[in-house]
Design a protein that fits this description.
This protein is α/β, with parallel strands linked by helices. The strands form 5 sheets. Strands 3-2-6-7-1-8 form a 6-stranded parallel sheet, with helices on both faces. The longest helix is centred in the C-terminal third of the chain and has 31 residues. It is globular, with a radius of gyration of 32 Å.
């Protein structure tokens, strides 16, 4: 080819040997496929990289080869990927590789030069912030996170005077979510409100097409479609107001960054020329996940440029957030080269899996073989690595869902849990496991099964947390306190474990609410005409809220002894309900009184009132204990910190949306050895485990049934033909219809094509799920569950794998109806939670407590109880209380866990949002600046602007808004002090990297500031902006955190601890403290065990 590279003096063998520390036995020379990618010509090139095919290593080798063999300066190379975690990993590996090549003399020049590696959003933000004034925008606009965006749109909805909103018949949270989706779709696709409204106006004309028969009867599908499209202008109006509010407040979103950056590049050729000159070579990772807006921006800047796009269309599973497998197919058109003939554009492949064993690859290839992209040029099946194990893929398909969960738990226990009677290598890394589900609502069920089987497990992600039973009860109680019409949530509390109302009593309460609605204030029945008028009103109700009915019944019960005649209102209630209704009414009243507290305080108060922390702690089968409640409290604290002015309703609406939306709670977890992680398949992408189970492989769940229906003929969806990627979406030629019947037929055809599109997306999900497993994969399903009245069918994926001989065929369903174990008449409710013996003993204890309470109770009612609680709180603050260490904690907390474990555990259990102390804020700002300094080598020694640093996707740095001029002055002094040391002129191999590892039976989360390599040794560095500690004790406490960092880095990289130096750098005073010997693992575990022992022995003082 005329566009091939000249031969370089440095060979791949030279590079491989240097990277192996000159040890030929450790050399990993590129495979023939990798060599082609590494030497890809300096023209737009596409790489089809299958799952686990070593794409990250190949990208590193590409960069190293460009520098070492082709003389490209490192700073001329740009690498983009999606997450900060992926960008950090790529940056670290590139810097390590370049450092080793420099030490061998294969790379010259500036030893501190490094490629720029960042996320797509960070790159778009940099283009925008550097050139914002060119399009009349403010460069220092603050980026909002999902919580802030939701809260802002919710306030827009509440402030709207659009009377059409009431016609939507939707909850506030649902309207907010739909309007936010429309706003972002309009921004991503550069749509104006006028364009949307014009389309709706044109589409309304289909109602005028001839209908059915001589009567010209309108067809329901057409009438419904027009009604749905008529709602779009409502959401468009909210979107317009939302954009105005953002600009008024100086806020932008990630989608704004991309749109504004594209606008800048389209209108200002000089900006494009400068970017192309700065970034001579570009690598685009995970290209299949880019949105149409991102590809447009990148194509505008880097068309006909040395771009290497790496991706896998089979792993394109984020269509719901704008990604499309069509991006890969369109790449050569979007980045067209002027020197390469059409159809001769370079396309490469990486088809060897370095992760999966053979049988797992067989299953992944089988399920992906029917994808439309499987026949695209350059897309081939994954092949096994040399020396790969056989692996195994097995099937479990019992009758019921509960049996399926038990089978998955047993399978995991046999592989994850160490048998104490079997000799094992204590130094061996425990295996990792994951349960991946299509729907997060079943995560708690499988977690409970694992817990019963004694398997350590953790549900990952906010959605799974919100499904935990104790968190559901907490959410329901909070919603009941906030909204008197929250009937469903109130029923959950009534029939739950605390009150255990029978269904007959619930029906009676419901009947009372309906009866009250038809009576006036004197309790006389309303006249028929009044009832009819109420029904005609838009706000008319056939019943009063259940809360009001409960309060009414509680009052009747309290005054029953004053009446001589039996109370007919109470006639349908059981004796137990009469006892419990007053308690429920009082609980709700107390919840209402507390609902005006700050959100986090209200969470704490509700947990206490519901005794949820006591219940989960007392449950021996609940391994999470208060962990889920703690995590929910942390989520509340994060929301309050992001939106301090938001009310309880905003938080509860946010929680409802987050419970069903993976995009609002992205997963960035690492596999935990010895622990089974439970998460959604969407959240698993980019991760891997030794053993993986993929349950619910039944039709309707895996694959799931399409919820898209008629595609764009849905609430809050922009018509496909208005989108920039309309050519990749099913078309509805509605303008060609001459009758409503023809249009209805076209809509049926559209629905079928959308179903086919959904089936393909589900197949990609299965491919992603299967390829997460290294060694063993379990696919499971079941026919029957209490959730469905009819039997589920076996998944098409299971049938295909069985036909291919990869797994055994599932047993046939031999039952015509649900097994007796699922029959409704076999379930007694309320159920007794104890055996007869334990129930008798618990009853005796309860009576003793009640007797003690009666003998000690004092008059005063709720006010007296509140005073008593305040006095008790004051007393408890002065006592030592028994607490449990959290299962996961940050390394920065270890010193406090060792020296004052009760205090730090209390903080973790009940986190409170608070503005950080000034020194904490300055420290956070300084660490972010140092990270930006190392990530932007072209900035030299300049003091980077705050907009460059804090205008990223890091919502955690939102406290920068509270920084004063004095804070910035102090930060500048720290910057100058730092630039006066040798550290800014060195190149770190790692910056702000999070690593998790196991210490005892806990997981320690380490966020390492920086790691450097120097003269064959590794230096783990911790920046300190405070004062140098005085005294041996203080210095010993400071080194504990570095000891954890050293151990984490050693286990993460395999570098022996004795080759790692620990350094504390006190920037303000320019002093370094090199710890000659950090505390080792054995001593760290002893300290942790002592802290746990001290807590278990502690008890309240008299």
């Amino acid at each position: 080819m005329t566009h091939a590279w000249p031969m370089g003096a440095v060979t791949h063998g030279d590079i491989a040997l240097a990277l192996a520390d000159n040890d030929p036995s450790r050399m990993l020379e590129p495979t023939p496929e990798q060599r082609l990618v590494i030497e890809a010509p300096p023209v737009p090139s596409l790489v089809m990289a299958g799952a686990g095919s070593g794409k990250t290593q190949t990208m590193v080798q590409r960069i190293v080869w460009l520098v070492a063999a082709q003389g490209v300066h490192p700073t001329e190379i740009l690498g983009l990927t999606f997450t900060r975690k992926a960008a950090g990993e790529l940056r670290e590996r590139v810097q390590l590789a370049l450092a080793r090549l420099r030490s061998e003399g294969l790379v010259g020049g500036d030893e501190f030069a490094s490629p720029e590696v960042s996320t797509y959003n960070s790159f778009a933000n940099r283009v925008f912030s550097e050139n914002a004034l060119l399009i009349g925008q403010e460069p220092d606009a603050r980026i909002v996170d999902e919580m802030t965006a939701f809260a802002l749109m919710r306030s827009v909805v509440l402030a709207s005077d659009d009377t059409r909103l009431s016609s939507l018949d939707l909850q506030l949270g649902a309207i907010t979510s739909l309007a936010l989706g429309v706003a972002r779709a309009m921004r991503d696709n550069q749509l104006s409100a006028a364009a949307c409204e014009s389309f709706v106006e044109e589409f309304r004309r289909v109602a005028e097409l001839p209908g059915r028969g001589t009567a010209n009867t309108p067809l329901k599908p057409v009438v419904d479609a027009v009604a749905i499209l008529d709602e779009l202008p409502i959401f468009v109006g909210l979107a317009e107001r939302y954009q105005l509010e953002k600009r008024k407040r100086g806020l932008i979103e990630f989608s704004d960054q991309v749109t504004f950056a594209a606008e800048i590049c389209s209108s200002t050729p000089a900006v494009v020329e400068e970017l192309r000159a700065r970034h001579r070579f570009v690598i685009l990772d995970e290209y299949q996940d880019t949105s149409v807006g991102q590809t447009r921006l990148l194509g505008t800047i880097f068309g006909d440029h040395p771009v290497l796009a790496v991706g896998d269309p089979k792993q394109s599973i984020y269509g719901w957030r704008g990604a499309s497998p069509g991006n890969m197919r369109r790449f050569h058109g979007d980045f067209r080269s002027r020197i390469v003939a059409p159809n001769e554009e370079p396309t490469f492949q990486l088809s060897i899996s370095w992760r999966n064993d053979a049988r797992i690859l067989d299953s992944a290839n089988q399920v992906a073989s029917r994808l439309p992209e499987a026949s695209d040029p350059g897309v081939t099946q994954l092949g096994t690595r040399p020396g790969a194990g056989e692996g195994s893929v097995s099937l479990a398909f019992p009758e019921t869902l509960d049996d399926e969960a038990a089978a998955v738990a047993t399978w995991m226990r046999e592989r994850i849990v160490v048998d104490v009677d079997v000799d094992v290598d204590v130094d061996a890394r425990p295996p990792s496991g994951a349960v991946l589900l299509r729907a997060r609502k079943l995560l708690p069920l499988f977690s409970a099964a694992l817990t019963r089987a004694g398997v350590p497990n953790r549900v990952i992600g906010l959605g799974g947390l919100l499904s935990a039973p104790e968190v559901v009860d907490l959410r329901c109680a909070m919603r009941v306190a906030h909204d008197s019409t929250a009937g469903n949530e109130l029923i959950r509390l009534l029939v739950g474990a605390r009150f255990q109302f029978g269904l007959a009593d619930v029906k009676t309460i419901h009947d009372v609410s309906r009866s009250l609605a038809n009576r006036d204030v004197t309790m006389a029945s309303l006249a028929d005409e009044v009832r009819a008028s109420k029904r005609e009103l838009a706000t008319g109700d056939d019943e009063v809220p259940l809360q009001e009915a409960l309060d009414f019944l509680a009052t009747r019960i309290a005054t029953e002894d004053r009446r001589t005649e039996p109370d007919t209102w109470l006639a349908g209630l059981s004796p137990s309900a009469r006892q419990r209704i007053p308690a429920v009414s009082e609980l709700i009243a107390e919840l209402r009184r507390n609902s005006g507290l700050p959100i986090t305080s209200f969470v704490d108060a509700t947990i206490a009132l519901m005794s949820l922390d006591l219940e989960v702690t007392a449950n021996p089968g609940n391994m999470a204990r208060v962990g889920n409640l703690d995590a929910f409290a942390e989520a509340a604290a994060a929301f309050s910190s992001a939106e301090p002015d938001a009310d309880l309703g905003a938080f509860l609406d946010w929680v409802e949306i987050a419970a069903g939306d993976d995009s609002l709670a992205p997963v960035q977890e690492q596999a935990e050895p010895g622990v089974v992680q439970l998460l959604s398949i969407h959240g698993s992408k980019g991760l891997e485990w030794d053993f993986v189970a993929v349950p619910r492989s039944v039709e309707g769940e895996m694959p799931s049934t399409s919820r898209d229906g008629l595609g764009w003929i849905r609430r809050g969806v922009i018509p496909y033909e208005l989108l920039l990627d309309a050519h990749d979406r099913p078309e509805l030629p509605w303008r060609d219809a001459e009758t409503q019947k023809e249009l209805a037929d076209l809509m049926v055809d559209l629905k079928e094509r959308i179903k086919e599109r959904n089936d393909d997306e589900e197949r990609r999900l299965a491919y992603v799920a299967y390829t997460r497993a290294r060694h063993e994969l379990l696919i499971s399903g079941s026919y029957w569950s209490a959730i469905h009245k009819t039997a589920r069918k076996v998944s098409v994926f299971v049938d295909e794998l069985a036909e291919a001989g990869i797994i055994d065929a599932p047993p046939e369903n031999t039952l015509d109806e649900a097994p007796a174990s699922l029959a409704a008449d076999s379930v007694a409710w309320p159920h007794t939670p104890f055996s007869p013996e334990r129930h008798e003993r618990v009853s005796e204890l309860a009576q003793a407590v009640a007797h003690a309470h009666d003998t000690q109770a004092a008059p005063g009612g709720a006010l007296a109880r509140r005073i008593e609680l305040l006095l008790r709180e004051r007393a408890e603050r002065s006592t030592v209380t028994s607490v449990q260490l959290p299962a996961r904690f940050a390394a920065s907390k270890f010193k406090d866990l060792v020296t004052d474990p009760a205090e730090i555990a209390a903080q973790l259990r009940r986190p409170m949002p608070q503005k950080p102390f000034r020194q904490t804020r300055i420290g956070t700002m300084f660490h972010a600046w140092v990270e930006a300094h190392y990530a932007a080598p072209n900035a030299g020694g300049d003091l980077l602007g705050m907009a460059e640093i804090f205008g990223t996707e890091d919502g955690a740095l939102s406290s920068i808004a509270d920084a004063s001029n004095a804070d910035f002055a102090e930060l500048e002094r720290l910057q100058e002090a730092f630039l006066g040391t040798p550290w800014p002129h060195r190149t770190p191999s790692l910056v702000e990297q999070t690593i998790e590892f196991r210490l005892g039976d806990r997981t320690v989360v380490c966020k390492i500031d920086a790691v450097f390599e120097h003269e064959g040794r590794v230096e783990v560095v911790d920046w300190k902006t405070g004062r140098v500690p005085s005294g041996d004790s203080a210095r010993w406490e400071r080194q504990l955190q570095l000891a954890l960092y050293t151990l984490a880095y050693s286990e993460h990289t395999g570098v022996p601890p004795e080759r790692i130096d620990a350094v504390l750098v006190y920037v303000r005073e320019g002093e370094e403290i090199r710890v000659p010997e950090v505390t080792g693992r054995a001593e760290l575990e002893r300290l942790l065990a002592e802290a746990e022992a001290a807590l278990s022995a502690a008890s309240p003082s008299a």
